[in-house]
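Deliverable D2.4 — example input (structure tokens):
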């Protein structure tokens, strides 16, 4: 059982699942801030933990599970299948918003569930961790990277070259990996909202 927070507004234009990065949780202030912008735009959101409470305690000591992309991907796929079957979200198209290692799991899940994942947004993601599966991704994918996050820019450029679907790489000037600089996270939220609003509504 995984803990999560699901919000689906009336006449939602789709629902976005947040796949947090290494060492984070459903309480991530960055993801919750982005989720607020999506909610205001008429999109449903699901923020949930990829690890159980016991696993989270183990990971805090060892940092082993946060990089287990296979485990995180399977948990995400299970959550996608669960969301599809819920009465209040059945029929809504699903988007994935992944951060850091969560972006790798989001892209791997999109490759595995092309009929269920309609769009992907990666914030400061590590798509290089799943390079072999990227040619199988069919969901339109937006890669967002901070302009000062040089190593991750290169990783995302290589990932963009491997994607065969509709995709775009956006580099936010003056932003570091966590987008902590004033205004940079707001740019991420607006880009994500516009991408999902373009690709999710039926």
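Example output (designed residues):
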């Amino acid at each position: 059982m995984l803990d999560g927070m699901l919000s689906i507004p009336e006449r939602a234009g789709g629902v976005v699942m947040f796949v947090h990065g290494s060492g984070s949780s459903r309480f991530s202030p960055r993801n919750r801030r982005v989720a607020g912008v999506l909610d205001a735009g008429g999109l449903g959101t699901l923020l949930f933990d990829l690890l159980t409470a016991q696993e989270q305690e183990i990971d805090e000591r060892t940092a082993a599970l946060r990089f287990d992309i296979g485990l995180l991907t399977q948990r995400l796929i299970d959550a996608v299948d669960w969301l599809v079957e819920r009465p209040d979200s059945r029929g809504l198209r699903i988007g994935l918003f992944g951060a850091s290692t969560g972006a790798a799991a989001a892209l791997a899940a999109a490759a595995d569930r092309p009929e269920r994942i309609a769009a992907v947004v990666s914030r400061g993601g590590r798509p290089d961790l799943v390079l072999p599966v990227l040619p199988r991704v069919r969901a339109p994918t937006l890669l967002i990277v901070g302009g000062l996050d040089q190593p991750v820019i290169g990783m995302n450029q290589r990932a963009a070259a491997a994607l065969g679907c509709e995709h775009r790489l956006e580099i936010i000037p003056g932003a570091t990996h966590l987008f902590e600089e004033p205004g940079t996270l707001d740019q991420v939220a607006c880009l994500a909202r516009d991408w999902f609003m373009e690709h999710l509504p039926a």
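The chain has one domain: 4-199.
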